[in-house]
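Service request form, structural biology core

Requester: graduate student, group of Dr. S.
Request type: structure prediction, single chain
Budget code: on file
Notes: please return the result as structure tokens.

Sequence provided:
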Amino acid sequence: MEHESKVNYKTSFKMLQYITLVLTDYEKEANKEKTGISAIKDFRYPPVLPIVFYDGAGNWTAETNFFDVTELNDVFGKYLPKFEYELVSLSKYSVEDLAKFGDALSLIMIVDKIQTVDGISLLGKLPKDYIENLRLNIPQHLNKLLADVITILLSRINVPIEEIAEVTEKIYSRRLQEMFTFIEEYDVQETRRVARAKGVQEGRQEGVCIGVNLSTMILRDLLKNLPVAKIAERHQVSEDIVIEIQSALNEDLA
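Core staff response, request fulfilled:
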């Protein structure tokens, strides 16, 4: 309970800090336009609506009201902030649900749902008009943010950095269809490489049996260009096994 209490308080306190930053920035901008305006009696701050997007597997357990996680709130209630943040659990929304929004935030949330290579197949569920709506509706100033999000996604599936640069360039040139096509095709190629590596290892025994999961991990290390000796040491197998998987990978790439 003590740990959960700390989580509750930390979440609410962080949200309070963000709100303060937003209001501070607003005040600075207002004073730039008209010096000293924040000091007049009628000056008002804008409402700030705090929203938390949660992508965890379990249920959110933290209190959503800062007042409720503060001790002695029944005594000092009038001195305590009573702000409450809205919680949006992404697990309750399918890719199709998120795609209906058709904006940059929807793409960020969709990418966030793709936690593994297998999750790339979610992109195939996007409605046909979604990508075109993105191309038309995303403002230019969000290109950098989207490029960073896509970079994270492609890094998860071990796309080489030079290829990531080529893909993110398509965002700046508004060629989003080409970008999505590349991601889906790369996923297919990676699946084939993993399957080939698994096939190479079937029936092979060398003191220990090399299982499917271990083969996959070795393959991913090879795709990251780690040295054979380091991979063998990391997974406690002989270098011959790593070299055999590497050979199969090279044949597939040829």
